[in-house]
Amino acid sequence: MSDGALHGVRVLDLSRILAAPLASQMLGDLGAEVVKVERPATGDDARQYGPPFLDGDTAGMSAFYLSCNRNKRSITLDFTTDRGREVLLGLIGRSDILLENFRPGVLAKYGLGYEDLRERFPRLIYCSVTGFGQSGPYERRAGYDGIFQALSGMMSVSGHPDGTPGAGPMKSGLSLIDILTGLYTGTALLAALRHRDLHGAGQHLDVSLLDCGIASMSHYVQNYLVSGDVPERRGNGGFGGIPSQAFECADGRRFFIVATTNPQFGRACRAIGHPGLIEDPRFSSISARIEHRLELLEVLEAIFVQREARHWIEVLDAADVPVSPVNDIRSALGDEHVRHRALPIEMAHETAGPIPGLRYPIRMSGTPVEDYAAPPVLGEHTRDVLSGLLDLDEDTIADLAAKRVI
């Protein structure tokens, strides 16, 4: 078994909930050593974000927490105390990355802000993930994923179009901005590591969920910047070429088709038995189909409602047209291709037993991701980390525990 790509990198993770813990989990998947620092007695708030919880009597192991905390070691530490701060500084000195998601200024109250540490630890990469960033009128505000989906405009382009039943802005079912922020953060940390290793200097990463949410709107924002037109909601339709849409069929089921290029559209029309649509001047080019989008969708809806979804999926797939059933999670995980890709995994845990999860999705030939340590129970590794990294003896550790520092 080979070392992971980030073997030798140590991450001190002070973060909670989802966005930042997801970023540190990905670094852990890639081979970094991640030490998760949690509050004594309570730990990461996400531990209580259930039900569902892991079966059994293991406290603080919600499914939400399990989703973003594997490949980490958990220690409990109250760094608001003088002794706790001293211990944390010792761990910072042995780490490459410090990841935190407190509101701006909170850690500075304890002498643990970036400006407090930059001279003492010049190679440290200090990453702050906050709702609104380190500056601006809203910097002190708290915020969660739904707030940023609303504020960023993401909700305004999600949901049924105006004039249809149930119309109105809609939040994504996923905590989408949290997840995207985790991905942006992971990429930025890798870039900062590369820069540090080339030039010897750490830096501060100011990550804002709002910034990441707006950046994630991609071509929606670009369309607005170019045209000045505010994008409309299109329900289950795409915002590029046409058709890129979900359609309801005779059996009440839905499928999604993408036939936006001219060759794809031609193959689709022939496969569904309506080759004449190809020659219709309203639909004969990509731009014409976009301009006459509603007319084309009306024609296709009338066609697809005549047969069951399975029929259309089979004939379109045979014609090399991108098409898929609209699955729920059970159906997605049961799909034959998903089963072949072996995405579900089991992680062994001494007290909790086998814990289900999903593997790291990228297949790497030189440094494959093969190790999946189960998410830790609260403080599971406190003694191991303090003795192993800081050389603290049992008496010192016992004294810290007696004083509730750990």
From TrEMBL:
It comes from the Bacteria. InterPro entries: CoA-transferase_III_domain, CoA-Trfase_fam_III, CoA-Trfase_III_dom3_sf, CoA-Trfase_III_dom_1_sf. Pfam families: CoA_transf_3. GO terms for molecular function: transferase activity. Keywords: Transferase. PANTHER family: SUCCINATE--HYDROXYMETHYLGLUTARATE COA-TRANSFERASE. This is CaiB/BaiF CoA transferase family protein. The lineage of its organism: Bacteria, Bacillati, Actinomycetota, Actinomycetes, Streptosporangiales.
